[in-house]
Write a structure and sequence with these properties.
Keywords: Signal
Helix content: 25-40%
Largest sheet: 11 strands, mixed
Radius of gyration: 27 Å
Shape: elongated
Distance between the termini: 54 Å
């Protein structure tokens, strides 16, 4: 049976179910207060470092394949090689055995697969191995090490050296070719070279430094922050106005918006007299991004971690909350109709190392609408947000106090698009939408050396209002607040490796949202303090734990 390498039809439904249900984590949970485990050594620990954007890009290009071996095989129609590799694996271990052994590494991993394997299909072993290779490479690597089995790269190098050589020469990361991060790029500018050199030569804290040292690095953005925000600084209120007070037909409009990273607000009002007048505005998406990397290298800039393992847990938390308010009146003698809509949504996602696609951690949109003698434009208002953020749930509407109202307000409901509505010639609606992801509720990500983990929080809002007849007005507003943060901890390193110090990063903002700066700060401090087993002062809206 011919199987397409990267998009197997038979695997598709299993992959979707497994990603949604297990959030595709790979990690180890340690029920201990130890934050770093070094095997039989008395070395110190490496403090985190914040580096320039150019240095970050240089280090990432050194440690990352420009095209993974799996993707290269897909592009060259070499699925037979992958199938041969999987046949070798599954000749020794069947699906149930593999799953049991994976559970020894991470008890929370692959929970749904127990149900999937209940049918005992002859191809279960193939599909499970394919899923691990493509979607959970870090966990698969741990399993291979535990079972003392060769990796896909080692298998291809032995059994198809021509294919391996073509990939290795053109796409493999420079670190895999034995090149130093200091010298692999002949066009590296002196400033970047000196920054990397200083990074590699810095001392450990609390003890001596071994030849191989691992440290957490964070890119410094152009605005000097630890996350990449669009916009990078809090924007000033941007008013949009329109007015016509001449003659019998009149109208007025005022709409003001602000934004800081993924969090934004909008407040507007329109009125009209003896004319139809409307307003429609999509607030193009704002975003907050951050990346995580553990750099492991010797002083000369060579990858020193291939034979001396070092891994850690990466805990991540993201929150997003929006409040909505709309109001409209059409009560005067010649008034005929009015409506007002306000909606906002957010998506929190991660791009993990390897060939796995982006994994959505939460994806939610909500809003409020009122109308009198005119239909709601719910699909129009929420549809743009749903499409932009890739929300898969259906668009629904209901009244205040309904099940939908509760689902929007619950941060445990992570994939929904809904709007709270009310009708009447003088009607108002207030609603709140909350979303949250916290890896500590499930399982941490497995932090591997010299890999990049990229997280993005995107948001988009839409307001719309219209009225006609004698006199009508519409008020529409939204505001959001929230935070992103991570904690890198529980490092386990080989006997000749200096481990990183546990560290964390955070960003929070309030743009007229339901959560105050004080409450956001408290959330960040409490979460990071628990994860890192130390007090964290988050008085600034963003920072790094040193």
């Amino acid at each position: 049976m011919k199987r397409t390498l990267m998009t197997p039809l038979a695997l598709g439904s299993l992959v979707y179910m497994a990603i949604i249900s297990t959030t595709a984590f790979a990690g180890t949970v340690e029920n201990t207060n130890h934050r770093t485990t070094a095997l039989e050594n008395d070395y110190g620990a490496m403090a985190p470092a914040q580096v320039s954007k150019q240095t970050w890009q240089t280090i990432s290009a050194w440690s990352t394949d420009s095209l993974s071996l799996l993707d290269f095989m897909a592009e060259n129609d070499e699925e037979a090689v992958l199938n041969h590799y999987i046949e070798k694996l599954t000749a020794t271990y069947q699906a149930e055995e593999i799953l049991s052994q994976i559970k020894e590494i991470d008890v929370n991993a692959l929970d749904l697969w127990s149900t999937v394997l209940a049918d005992h299909s002859p191809e279960d072993s193939y599909y499970l191995a394919r899923y691990l290779i493509q979607y959970k490479p870090a966990l698969f690597k741990q399993w291979l090490t535990m079972q003392k089995m060769v990796s896909l790269a080692e298998f291809v190098e032995i059994n198809n050296p021509r294919l391996f050589e073509a990939w290795f020469e053109n796409y493999a990361a420079p670190k895999k070719k034995g090149l130093s991060v200091l010298s692999y790029n002949k066009e590296m500018d002196p400033t970047t070279y000196n920054e990397i050199k200083e990074l590699l030569n810095k001392d450990a804290k609390g003890g001596p430094k071994s030849a191989c040292a691992c440290q957490m690095v964070v890119p410094n953005t152009g605005s000097g922050t630890v996350v990449t925000n669009y916009p990078s600084t809090p924007s000033s209120p941007a008013p949009e106005t329109s007015s016509d007070n001449k003659g019998m037909s009149k109208h007025g409009l005022n709409f003001t918006s602000t934004a800081y990273g993924a969090f934004h607000s909008g407040d507007g009002e329109r009125w009209s007299k003896h004319k139809a007048y409307g307003y429609d505005n999509t607030i193009s998406h704002n975003s907050t991004e951050f990346s995580v990397k553990m750099l492991c290298a010797d002083k000369a800039g060579f990858d020193c971690n291939q034979s001396n393992s070092c891994s850690g847990n990466l805990e991540v938390r993201g929150t997003y909350a929006s409040r909505f308010h709309v109001k409209g009146t059409a009560r005067q003698i010649w008034s005929k109709a009015t409506n007002a809509h306000s909606a906002d949504g957010a998506k929190f996602a991660v791009d993990l190392p390897g060939s796995a696609p982006e994994i959505v951690l939460f994806n939610k949109a909500g809003g409020a609408a009122m109308s009198f003698n005119t239909g709601w434009d719910i699909n129009s208002v929420l549809g743009t947000i749903k499409a932009a953020l890739g929300i898969t749930a259906a668009i629904v509407n209901d009244n205040a106090g309904s099940l939908l109202d509760a689902q929007l307000a619950s941060d445990l409901i992570t994939n929904i698009a809904g709007i709270i509505t009310r009708s009447g010639n003088e009607a108002s609606v207030n609603s709140t939408m909350r979303a949250r992801f916290d890896s500590s509720d499930v399982s941490p990500f497995l932090l591997q050396p010299n890999e990049v983990y990229h997280f993005t929080l995107d948001s988009e809002a839409h307001v719309k209002a219209r009225g006609y007849g004698g006199y009508s007005d519409s008020h529409f507003e939204f505001g959001s607040s929230g935070a992103v943060m991570y904690a890198a901890n529980h490092f386990t390193c080989g006997p000749n490796v200096t481990a990183p110090m546990p560290t964390g990063l955070w960003f929070y903002a309030d743009q007229a949202g339901p959560d105050s700066v004080a409450s956001l700060r408290s959330d960040v401090e409490n979460w990071l303090s628990v994860q890192l087993n130390q007090y964290v002062n988050a008085s600034q809206s963003q920072g790094i734990v040193y």
